[in-house]
Design goal:
Layout (H helix, E strand, L loop, with lengths): L5 E7 L16 E2 L2 E3 L6 E3 L2 E4 L6 E3 L7 E2 L2 E2 L7 H7 E3 L4 H6 L3 E4 L2 E5 L1 E3 L4 E3 L1 E8 L2 E2 L1 E2 L4 E8 L29 E2 L2 E2 L5 E2 L7 E2 L3 E3 L2 E7 L4 E6 L7 E3 L34 E2 L4 E2 L4 E9 L8 E10 L2 E4 L16 H11 L4 H4 L2 H11 L1 E8 L7 H4 L25 H7 L4 E11 L4
Parallel strand pairs: 3-32, 26-27
Antiparallel strand pairs: 1-23, 1-31, 2-5, 3-4, 5-14, 6-9, 7-8, 10-11, 11-32, 12-13, 14-15, 14-31, 16-31, 17-28, 17-32, 18-19, 20-21, 22-25, 23-24, 28-29, 29-30
Length: 436
């Protein structure tokens, strides 16, 4: 059975701007976390906010849509400036969280449902951010810290992943996405091209870039964690070659789209993660991610990102690279990234963009927690859980990334067959190294 869902728990920079509608009151769901940085743990009354891309976009002070399906209204959005003046994003009320978007919380736990049949449309997936309060994102400073979260992806058999913080605007990542409806407070409607295989999405002229630390990209069959560097700082709107969009320009952009991934299956450890394996994906998993510095202080350079798993009270150390002639690394470091990319024949983009030191400098500036569930209309998530690229020999090291078949992951099939698929994130915690 094939389920193309994708979970990403990432840390991405965020910025904001643009108009707020008044037709629906905004409600933020409570999702508490623990802060253990002082040596003892205290509960923070944090909340979640829905990403602006999922929100109703309409004419200011009216109920007329500015964006419908995967196209902008030519009447209200003939260009970015006019559209920004005419249009607003609206709130998400209590009923809409679960009834429209399939998102619920209780105490320390968040649940995201894949397909939700709402009163006006069918919603696919979701993306939410953690808030410190109703008007500010909860910013994490992770250097010389560890980030802990429980994840239950047992229901995901293969493949499935001027409004301000109060309205979930400002998403960015190292892929410099063009599908964001608003970038830097402006409508991204110029040169907008509706997707030919996604009825809800498209791509505009502008992309939006920033550093990205993927804590968890996974389903029940495969997983990875991946830092991505950029040559810029903060929230950076891009256009053309700077975005690195097409294959010829992929490595000419301002961000490292590949990142330096740690994926057990791709590293030839095919019995480490999955149902019934060493890390058993049929059960909840506690993820401990440590950001280790050169001198063990907050001021040192970042030199290592280390992963530890906990299940049923048992601590499981990360597995090692398992290729002849390759150092058996068990964490992400500059040496690991350099050696494994040479071995796989990958471009050394992570090192070229500054490596671990640059990532540490981004962590010093602060990142925001993003939790999402989505399917992949571009590559059907094969880059995560199958063979990728498809024209390469799967026997070549680095091509096999998971056990899923290469014809799996078609979004229309997944959405029809597994609408009730869910993922749960819970017990978010930040603290000193080895506080787990």
């Amino acid at each position: 059975m094939k389920l193309t869902l994708f979970i990403v728990l990432g840390l991405a920079c965020v910025a904001y701007g643009q108009k707020v509608g008044t037709q629906t009151p905004e409600v933020h769901l409570s999702l508490s976390m623990e802060n253990c940085e002082s040596g003892s743990c205290t509960t923070e009354s944090t909340k979640i906010v829905l990403d602006s891309n999922w929100r109703w976009t309409h004419v200011v002070d009216d109920y007329v849509n500015c964006y419908e399906g995967n196209t902008w209204s030519p009447e209200f959005c003939p260009d970015s400036v006019t559209c920004t003046e005419n249009c607003a994003i609206d709130g998400v009320d209590d009923a809409s969280w679960s009834g429209t978007y399939g998102v619920t919380t209780t105490g320390f736990e968040l649940t995201l449902q894949f397909v939700t049949e709402g009163p006006y449309s069918t919603n696919i997936g979701s993306r939410v951010y953690l808030l410190a309060d109703d008007n500010n994102y909860r910013v994490f400073y992770l250097k010389n810290r560890e980030f802990i979260i429980d994840v239950d992806s047992s229901e995901l058999p293969c493949g499935l992943n001027e409004a301000g913080a109060a309205y979930g605007v400002g998403y960015c990542d190292a892929q410099c996405p063009h599908d964001m409806k608003f970038i830097g407070g402006m409508a991204n409607c110029d040169d907008w091209e509706p997707s030919d295989n996604d009825p809800n999405s498209g791509a505009g002229k502008m992309g939006i870039c920033c550093f990205e630390m993927d804590i968890w990209e996974a389903n029940s069959m495969a997983q990875s964690f991946t830092p991505h560097d950029c040559s810029i700082t903060g929230y950076y709107p891009c256009e053309g070659i700077e975005c690195g969009d097409n294959p010829d320009d992929r490595y000419s952009g301002v961000c490292d789209k590949d990142g330096c991934d740690w994926a057990a299956y791709r590293l030839n450890q095919k019995e480490f993660f999955g149902p019934g394996l060493t890390v058993d994906s049929s059960q909840p998993i506690t993820l401990v991610t440590q950001f280790i510095t050169s001198d063990g202080t907050d001021n040192g350079d970042l030199v290592e990102v280390r992963r530890i798993y906990i299940q049923n009270g048992v601590t499981i150390q990360n597995t090692q690279v398992d290729f002849d002639g390759i150092t058996p690394y068990d964490s992400v470091s500059d040496d690991y990234c350099s050696e494994i990319k040479d071995f796989f024949g990958d471009v050394q983009a992570f090192a070229e963009k500054g490596g671990m030191k640059a990532l540490g400098e981004s962590l010093d500036r602060g990142h925001v927690l993003v939790m999402s569930l989505w399917d992949d209309h571009y590559s059907h998530m094969l880059w995560l859980d199958s063979n990728w690229p498809l024209d390469a020999d799967p026997a070549t090291p680095g091509i096999a990334r998971g056990p899923c078949p290469i014809d799996s992951g078609v979004p229309s099939e997944v959405e029809a067959e597994y609408p009730d698929a869910t993922v749960k994130f819970s017990n978010i915690k930040i603290g000193p190294i080895q506080s787990y």
